[in-house]
Amino acid sequence: MLSYESIQLELNKIFDKDNFSIEEVKKNLKKYNNEFIVIKCGGSVLIDPNLFNIFIQDIAILKKLGLSPIIVHGGGKRINNKLNKLNIKSNFIKGLRVTDIKTINIVEDVLIEFNKEIVNALQKKSCKAKRITSKEYNIISVKPENKELGFVGMPTKVKTEFLKEIINANEIPVIAPLGLDENNQTYNINADTAAGAVAKELKARRLLMISDVEGVLDQDKKLIAEINSLKAKNMINKDIISGGMIPKINNCIDVASNGVKGVVIIDGRKNHSILLELLSEKGAGTLIRK
């Protein structure tokens, strides 16, 4: 782990102004020491090379600081691009891709290839990382979500002991949202759902949901820094939270109500939002608590 002076120097290289005091950093490092931090990454971060590089840099810094990040990545846009190239039309039910046997094979290939890219990028930053996919070290058991969706799975079990072994070996787990059923058939899992399942099973201190939204906005479209489950449900009932944010928020509420101390929705389009959330008092995005 870096000394506090080295930490300050490292952060000063990234931020133009004083986003952090060393006291803030010390306090937050103490808070997250020996705790699990699950980071779900999706949206533009996964297709914009600059944002991707910043994401990798942030994870590498967290690791240098002695924290234990666990990555769960999406890949929807890459999957869309691949299916479009093959002239395969995608149908969605409540935001979930209908996945037949041909599609699941393509989805699996795309996610495994992307998983390797993330691991390789971390290794270039001198971070040890381990690929966790349906083909290598699978940790998620699933059952079918429903017949209409085909090979879309709902997690039933997460092999947390294996995850802890990886972390104890000073490696970063990089988890693809794929799982196997009792017959070893691969299923696609919604990445938010997969990350939530991992965070709940580990009783993580934080689940960070990185996507293309600023966070939860109030009726005046202003960012809400913190919200509890009851208020979030009321905002859904009043249509202040609507559309694609509803399943995202419901997943966050479920996670926050099942052993995870806080779930944060942050905007991956903003530079170094992960570091701002975890190391500064100001934070980034919206913190959702029970």
Secondary structure layout plus pairing:
Layout lengths: L3 H11 L7 H11 L3 E6 L7 H16 L3 E6 L2 H10 L6 E2 L2 E2 L3 H24 L4 E4 L7 E5 L8 E6 L1 H9 L3 E4 L2 E3 L5 E3 L2 H12 L3 E6 L14 E3 H9 L7 H12 L6 E5 L5 H7 L6 E4 L1
Parallel strand pairs: 1-2, 1-11, 2-8, 5-8, 11-13, 12-14
Antiparallel strand pairs: 3-4, 6-7, 9-10, 13-14
Helix pairs in contact: 4-5, 7-9, 8-9
Q: Helix fraction?
A: 40-55%
Beta fraction: 15-25%
Major sheet = 8 strands, mixed
Radius of gyration: 18 Å
User: Mean pLDDT across all residues, rounded?
Assistant: 91
Write up what this structure looks like.
This protein is α/β, with parallel strands linked by helices. It is 42% helix and 20% strand. The strands form 4 sheets. It has an 8-stranded mixed beta sheet with strand order 5-8-2-1-11-13-14-12, with helices on both faces. It has a two-stranded antiparallel sheet with strand order 3-4. Helix 3 links the parallel strand 1 (36-41) and strand 2.
Question: In a few lines, what is going on in this structure?
Answer:
By secondary structure, the chain is an alpha/beta fold. 42% of the residues lie in helices and 20% in strands.
Label this structure with key terms.
single chain, 290 residues, alpha/beta, 8-stranded mixed beta sheet, two-stranded antiparallel ribbon, 10 helices, 14 strands, 20% strand
